[in-house]
Amino acid sequence: MALEQAMKKLIVVIAIGMSLYHLTIAFIGAPQELFFRSTHLLFALTLVFLMYPSFRKTQPAAGAIRDDAGGMIGSGGPTPVASWWDWLLIAASVGTIAYVWVHHEHLLTRFVFVDDPTRTELILGTIFTLIVLEATRRIIGWALPVTAMIFLGYAFFVANTRPEQIVEIMYLTTEGIFGSTLGVSAAYVIMFVMFGAFMERTGIGRLFMDFSLALTGHTAGGPGKVAVVSSSLFGTVSGSAVANVLVDGPITIPLMKRTGFRPPFAAAVESVASTGGQIMPPIMGAAAFVMAEFLGVSYFQVTMWAIIPAFLYFLAVFCAVHFESKRVGLLGLPRAEIPRMGTVMRERGHLFIPLLTILFSLMAGFSAPLCALAGTLTCVPVAMMRKSTRKDINLGTILGALEDGAKNSVAVALACACAGIVIGVITQTGAAINFTSIVVNLSRDLLPLALVLTMLAGIILGMGMPTTPAYVVMVSLLVPAIIKLGAIAPAAHMFAFYFAILSAITPPVALAVYAAAGIAKAPLWAAGWTAVRVGAAGFIVPFMFIFEPSLLMIGEWQVILQSFVSATIGTICLAAALFGYLFRVARPWERGVLLIAALLLIKPGLLTDLGGLACVLAVAFSQLVLRRHEPPPMPVQAVEYH
Q1: pLDDT recorded at residue 158
Q2: How distant, in Å, are the alpha carbons of 91, 156, 176, 393 from that of 167?
Q3: Is the pTM of this model over 0.85?
Q4: Domain boundaries in the chain?
Q5: Measured distance CA(516)–CA(249) in Å, rounded
Q6: What is the pLDDT of residue 238?
Q7: DSSP assignment letter at 334
Q8: What is the pLDDT of residue 632?
Q9: What one-character DSSP code corresponds to residue 279?
Q10: pLDDT of residue 62
Q11: Sequence-ordered list of residues with C-beta below 8 angstroms from that of 491, at least 6 positions apart, any chain
Q12: Cβ-count burial of 395 within 10 angstroms (0-12 exposed, 13-18 middle, 19+ buried)?
């Protein structure tokens, strides 16, 4: 027991040290990138081998679920008792990275593939690559390491690349493991993850929930709308669909069931809303930072591209809840159970200040890490402003947030490092060019068919690995084909980003649905397919901005406004068609016309927009004029599903 306690304290010290290191770097500026990225990775490797030891004394709880960002959630955490093998791996990690530190001047000035690596460098590089694969396997699972090994096999046996060339690019350059994806984790992701940890520790979760209850709790299907609003807010901080479900779900899902929502529908709403958090500005999922790096634009530019698609996504979920509630006659929560908006804002509204700090800092043109630092440093002083939030703030709050920030970023760091192996192989072998030719040939030079292939690939990749490496693989292999067939680069990258995320709600492997279904006590398949229906617009929106980039706010403002209005009405019509309600319960022919209207409005163009509006007006006339005397559905009495 004493050994376990000592190990836990060691983990806490290393985690806090990692956070303090990155806070300092964000303030004074990053050192040379090879040194900075290797230091970041060494912290992550050390924590992985201590937190996820080889021979655990206890196993994770039966109800544990693997998070979409890596690691096990709901397990109570792995048992921190490292074996001799784990200490050997830690020593090997220190030794291999120490070589990079000591010789980094030489590594910067050497000519890649001209100056042959020494025998020592080849041995260390091989060991280091294996260490990264093993650490990634421990915290994320087999999918990503196996993918990396397949690419290594391709390099050795198909592309006939010399092993020393692969080891050289992986270990001695910034084109492999220490590449741009790991740089994004070191410079961007950990800072925003740390900001999220400080926000959670200072009470932001309760603010989001109370704010959502006050805003929508009393309306038809209020608890479902609370789930949508609170998950969109919390998702901007967490960046993880599963973590979002496990924070919001225990509150929103029982509320939904109590007011009459069927368990599969309650699980679907929470999982779809939580998944959307990764595409919700101003703080999106980790892959958004990688996108900014790949495209050579500011992170603020990526958030601008995401605004309208994110709005359409959450509008679709909100409308799905509203129409389903109206169709079956669900009521909202009693006023007595709902906090007043004035009280919420007076007691906790000031906790929005850190989020606003980041938003305005990004708009002012400051770098993303500096914006995250500013937001993080304001969390505690802002929480101290009022008595209602001051009582929970102490030294333990700060140290706990520093610890959480480091631990929560480890999975992303290892995913980015392992994705660097894939990118290194693709760069060295030219696999991207070959794969682009294959996709173009399979799609027969048709962009829609290439998009469908990319969508399926994104969903399949996302089933086995976190969003960031799934997005990286898609960008390396599939996105060039989409661009070659006519899509603009920002739209193509956003397309890959969306479908890497949507795998969290797509059966058969839908991690967010698994988490929500467990809370709702709902059948997995029923909840999964209901989630696909609730999030249907999420599968259509990426196709919309491929064919109409104005939805990414690219182009003239008149075109952007027209496309936005058209897509908004189309999204509402799609939800109305899928859930059988607009102003009244829709008849079969009305649902068919609404679906046609949605498809016409979703497709850009004046003629299709006019045709879609005509269909909407026809259904509206039928429901508001011809059926105005039809009684509404009887309200459903509050019932607790078990």
Answers
A1: 87
A2: 20, 11, 9, 48
A3: no
A4: 2-178, 183-414, 555-629
A5: 6
A6: 59
A7: -
A8: 65
A9: G
A10: 43
A11: 545, 546, 549, 552, 554
A12: exposed
pLDDT at 133: 95
> CB within 8 A of 136, min separation 6: which ones?
144, 145, 148, 414, 415, 417, 418
Q: Determine phi and psi for 33, rounding to 5 degrees.
A: -60, -35
Neighbours of 139 (CB within 10 A): 26
Read off the pLDDT of residues 400-455 as tens digits, 9 standing for 90 and up.
Answer: 999 998 998 898 899 889 989 988 888 888 877 777 788 777 777 788 888 888 88
Is residue 212 within 8 Å of residue 321, measured between CB atoms? no
pLDDT for residue 123: 94
Q: Chain-centre distance of CA 176, in angstroms?
A: 24
Cis peptide before 508 (omega within 30 of 0): yes
Q: How far apart are CA 366 and CA 282, in angstroms?
A: 14
The pLDDT of residue 80 is: 56
Three-state secondary structure string covering 156-208:
HHHCCCCHHHHHHHHHCCCCCCCCHHHHHHHHHHHHHHHHHHHHHHCCHHHHH
User: Using the 8-state DSSP alphabet, how is residue 623 labeled?
Assistant: I
Q: Which ranges of the chain have pLDDT less than 50?
A: 57-63, 69, 73-78
- For residue 438, give the amino acid letter: I
Q: Element (H or E) spanning 583, and its range?
A: none
- Structural contact between residues 350 and 371, judged by C-beta atoms closer than 8 angstroms: no
State the DSSP code for 76.
-
Distance CA 121, CA 277 (A): 43
The Cα 513–Cα 274 span in angstroms is 10
DSSP 297: -
Planar angle of CA 247, 250, 255, nearest 5 degrees: 130
